[in-house]
Write a structure and sequence with these properties.
Enzyme class: transferase
Pfam family, one: LpxB
Strand order of the largest sheet: 2-1-3-4-5-6
Catalytic activity: a lipid X + a UDP-2-N,3-O-bis[(3R)-3-hydroxyacyl]-alpha-D-glucosamine = a lipid A disaccharide + UDP + H(+)
Strand content: 5-15%
Function: Condensation of UDP-2,3-diacylglucosamine and 2,3-diacylglucosamine-1-phosphate to form lipid A disaccharide, a precursor of lipid A, a phosphorylated glycolipid that anchors the lipopolysaccharide to the outer membrane of the cell.
Number of strands: 12
Keywords: Glycosyltransferase, Lipid A biosynthesis, Lipid biosynthesis, Lipid metabolism, Transferase
Distance between the termini: 19 Å
Helix content: 40-55%
Oligomer: single chain
């Protein structure tokens, strides 16, 4: 029987953890699980030590008032791991919390430690891998190019696939039904607009995106716009997009999250193109083969600091995974309405401009594991193999 202790601190980690636990139960029916997780992990049988929501904070302004409480939870988790002495501690993303627990556990025991989601040392702050190796034995990586970075620091690293390849996708029928429901003609250009999930992002990007869309709409009078959003910024997005062209349809998860998720999938399938802030949303768009333009900016000080630390000439994951620069980016000072609008119009008007993107998306999905074993099951196999190898060693 395998005994594991899990820690997830955010909804995305809860989803990864639930898929991992499901895979482990298939491979090891006698699995015993403990730890901290959200509703998805609890549905797989985890009794959470305390509500996961207590850990879902980010940013200095949010963390400082909760610092003492978070430190107590770190100590509590570490003490419980040491007491239970599981075969492994599996921490999922949320590195600021999870790796502090792992360090405490390592200082007091010989429990094996596994961290799910590698830090982006390939993009910036490469020294994080060496510091992580002090507390982590094995890393489960979402991207195929990550293992060499982790292995060079002394950790075992298994590429297990990205969860985007296992996410449900809308059918053509669902896409048509979405257009019909919102009065969007079959031949109308439909643009997804995703200005971010945090207040600061939305405040900076929405005015730029709106101005760019005015230009696109002037050249494509039938343009329609759909704006998927998140509960935390839905009201803000509604206000900022009310005057946009294209009679924007807001997908708001506050009333019914399940219905909003289905509507978002249908919108991705129905859209002809997208304008999005940088982030993992580019992979969601790639999964639905929706051509995109990526644009992003931050406050002046952050821009000066971050741009000097970035080690790549692109931030878009589709470009990075496919080893192309097929997705156009407008970042920092280049995040201006005119060039963004021009790129959007090219996507609408020129098949030769879209074609390299579509191919890059297909390559990206293939490299992330599409068509193979589900990421959760691959991750489960890697955890069990790591345990078996450690026992033999």
């Amino acid at each position: 029987m395998t005994r594991l202790f899990f820690i997830a601190g955010e909804p995305s980690g809860d989803a990864l953890g639930a898929a991992l636990i499901a895979g482990l139960k298939e491979l090891d029916p006698g699995l015993e699980i403990h730890g901290v997780g959200g509703p998805l992990m609890q549905a797989e049988g985890l009794e959470s030590l305390f509500p996961m929501d207590e850990l879902s904070v980010m940013g200095i302004a949010e963390v400082l008032p909760r610092y003492a409480a978070l430190m107590r939870r770190i100590k509590e988790c570490a003490a419980e791991v040491v007491r239970l002495s599981p075969d492994a501690l599996v921490t999922i993303d949320s590195p600021d919390f999870c790796l502090r627990v792992a360090r405490r556990v390592k200082a007091q025991s010989h429990v094996r430690t596994v961290h799910y989601v590698a830090p982006t040392v390939w993009a910036w702050r490469p020294g994080r891998a060496a510091r992580m190796a002090e507390a982590v034995d094995q890393v489960l990586a979402l991207f195929p190019f990550e293992p060499p970075y982790m292995e060079a620091a002394g950790m075992r690293c298994d590429f297990v696939g990205h969860p985007v390849v296992a996410q449900p996708r809308a059918s053509d029928q669902e896409a048509r039904a979405f257009r019909d429901r919102h009065g969007i003609a079959a031949d109308a250009a439909l643009c997804l607009v995703l200005p971010g999930s945090r207040a600061g992002e939305v405040d900076r990007l929405a005015p730029v995106f709106g101005t760019a869309l005015q230009t696109v709409a002037s050249q494509h009078p039938g343009l329609r716009v759909v704006v998927p959003t998140t509960a935390g910024v839905a009201e803000r997005v509604a206000g900022l997009t009310a005057a946009w062209p294209g009679a924007p349809v807001l997908i708001d998860p506050r009333a019914d999250g399940t219905a909003a998720a289905a509507a978002k999938r249908a919108a991705f399938a129905a859209a002809d193109l997208a304008l999005a802030a940088s982030g993992t949303v580019s992979l969601e768009l790639a999964a639905s083969e929706t051509p995109m333009v990526i644009a992003y900016d931050m406050n002046w000080l952050s821009r000066q600091i971050i741009w000097r630390m970035v080690r790549l000439d692109t931030v878009t994951l589709v470009n990075i995974v496919s080893e192309t620069r097929a997705v156009p980016e407008f970042l920092g000072e280049a995040c201006q309405p005119g060039p963004i609008a021009a790129a959007l119009c090219l996507l609408l008007e020129d098949p030769a401009y879209r074609a390299p993107q579509i191919e890059a998306m297909r390559v990206t999905m293939e490299r992330l594991g599409q068509g193979g074993e589900a990421p959760g099951r691959r991750a489960a196999r890697a955890v069990l193999d790591g345990l078996a190898t450690a026992r033999r060693g």
